[in-house]
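2 proteins. here.
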Amino acid sequence: MSTIHTSPTHTLASTARESWLVTGRDLRHWLRDPWTPVFGMAFSVMLVLVFGYLFGGAVALPGGGDYLAYLLPGMLALSMMFGVESTMAAMATDSRRGVMDRFRSLPMSGVAVPLGRAMADLLNSAVQLAVLMGGGLLIGWSVSGSLLDAFVAVGLLLWLRFAVLWLGIFLGLAFRSEGAMVAVQVLVWPIGFLSGVIVPPETMPGWLGVVADLNPVSATAAACRELFGNPSGITEGLLADHALLLAVAWPAVLTAVFVPLSVRAFRRLGA
């Protein structure tokens, strides 16, 4: 049974340095095999084109407005859900191959390895987000809010992504099986689409609209529409008045739950 060695003088600065070293290791893996993130970007752009042109003339928004302008912020939020299974797979693979045991044998913080993985995936997500936003602008999406509001919207999107990544990290450390990875992939799609990403919750059956309103992805999408100056598709309900608050609160709750669980799972590897 392996044990993790922790330096008695471990500081926040040393934890940050160790996390960045792990981040660099994961980024170098992508430089050697760039096709995974490239295909991820292409897939997100393809979804925008499919839904934008397939549903563009068929969806009437409550309160009016252009559907493409409604769709883009939703697809940006949805894209933050993609790739959780890849994060999980990377952590699980490193665990099975003994990489995590080598990390655990070093005098480093228990949070450095999972945090390094989260930061690497977050940087990858930031690039994907920029590509998707650029693709949206090319097909006619526009931002009518202020530049500061747009930066806040991007921050909320990455905040959601950061929280979701910790879910993938925890599951990868806790289960480490291919069956669990498939289960996560199956779970992500209903959570992503059972939201206000593609159509407004107000147009759904009553109970389904309530569930969609309570979805963290809906909160981030609604907040981003407000900040980008795009149609909200909302005339009443929880998100009409509290989208920004919920877009901050939901990821905070997920992070508060899954960061400690991930660190605990990392420390218990091999136990």
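next one coming up
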Amino acid sequence: MTDAKPALTTRPMTRLARGSRTWRDLSPLLRLLLLTQLAFNIGFFAVLPFLAEHLGTAIGMAGWLVGLVLGLRTFSQQGLFVVGGALTDRYGVRPLVLAGCVLRIAGFVWLGYARDTASIIAAVLLIGLAAALFSPAVESEVARQAVLWEEAGHGPRTRVLALLSVAGQAGAFLGPLLGALLLAVDFRTACLAGAGIFVLVLAGHLRLLPQHIPGRERIRARGGLRELLRNGRFLAVCCAYGAYLLAYNQLYLALPDEVQRGTGSQAPLAWLFALSSILVVTAQLPVTHWAARRLDLRRSMTAGLLLISAGFAAVAAARPAGWTGIAGLLPAAVFVVLLTVGQMLVTPAARAWVPELAPDGRIGLYTGALSSVAGLIVLAGSAATGALLGGTLPGWLPWLVLAALPLAAVGLLPRRVTRRAPSAAT
């Protein structure tokens, strides 16, 4: 009887204590990488959310040209993640992080002073290329360190990867607040402040990031991309992750349309975005803790995709009622909550799955490819979604189609995952 007493006293451990214990157990390198993700997003989101308004109002660009500039930035970042990942495998984490910081500093400074179209495009391409270098380096090393953390008996790797999501989302929440304050001066000041943050990151990593990280061997042989394209299980996970990312992208495409319909204004969007960020920052670790105890990686992704599908279905079901005002905002709020909780289940699980599917020495390439393949799916899917939303179909039908996509993605997930054999090229 007395043996059960300690278990009863430890069970009510607070969420904060669990998160603090996880943080204390992390290696100095993992803490540095997670703080890096936070700093990256603060610097990035202090500038980029305000770029479209700057280009359209201050520079006077046409709407189609603003869209082109934003699309080029996304392509130069997301589309080239696979290149950054391959370079990380070949040259190591430190050179890619440092080079990416230098390019991001140059890009932000250039953007702050750019006035003509060619200079603006060059600056945003530089900003996107910077992330294509440093993000796969950081994310792949966090994933590798998370596996080592799990093997050392500290707990499921998804806890570490959940902290990566929390750090990124906290930066995405704080960055726009900083940017909004700086815009009281002007856009150039916001750009220079963003560059300043990356100067600090660069200085910190010059001092703290190891020249060589133990256990991460650089791979010299080629052929990794051909092997990747033959890895059906990995590509299936990429496609399922792409379906999630396409759904997440509807925060910027379908959700504004629904909010405008329900309330006659875009103003509530800011509150819905804040709701999503706060949910991730406060609930990501508890959700991951629950999922790690009850679900494997496939079931976690499945549950997340089903919740996302339910979010779209909720809007589709409410559309025929034609609610407006506060009631008209409720379906959009339900969508945001279900999408965000689904994101909390899908993202750590997908990142945790990559090391199981990648050959030894190729984790950078596979981490980058996860984002690049998903980015291509978003690019194609967003065009199709835009056509659906802008067409003459009943308002509920595009949301029903969007609800079907995560359901289809569940069927793509591998039934089981086994560790691949070490690459002969290592």
